[in-house]
Amino acid sequence: KIQLYHGCRPSEVCQLTTSDIQIIEGVPCITISDSEAEQRLKTSNALRIVPLHNQLINEGFLEYVQGRREQKQKQLFDYKPHGDNKDWSFRYRT
């Protein structure tokens, strides 16, 4: 649903970390960046901060993120990069 509501690429969603979900000036946001060692962006213009859609908030996404943090999980989802080029979304295409 993150792709659907936010226009994110599959690889951008697959590589999200729990720290990429932040409250900025009172607004829950997703930070799409390459700040972590294995994160990559398609272009420099892909760097952005996107307000979290209300539907995801209503469906408990922030609670999911908090649960991952409490479990000491760095990655938001259990995807791992694949192959020599470290393709995050090898198995997930739009």
TrEMBL record:
Superkingdom of origin: Bacteria
Keywords, comma-separated and alphabetical: DNA recombination
Molecular function GO terms recorded: DNA binding
Domain Tyr recombinase intervals: 1-94
InterPro entries given in the database record: DNA_brk_join_enz, Integrase-like_cat_sf, Integrase_catalytic
GO biological process, one term: DNA integration
Descriptive protein name: Integrase
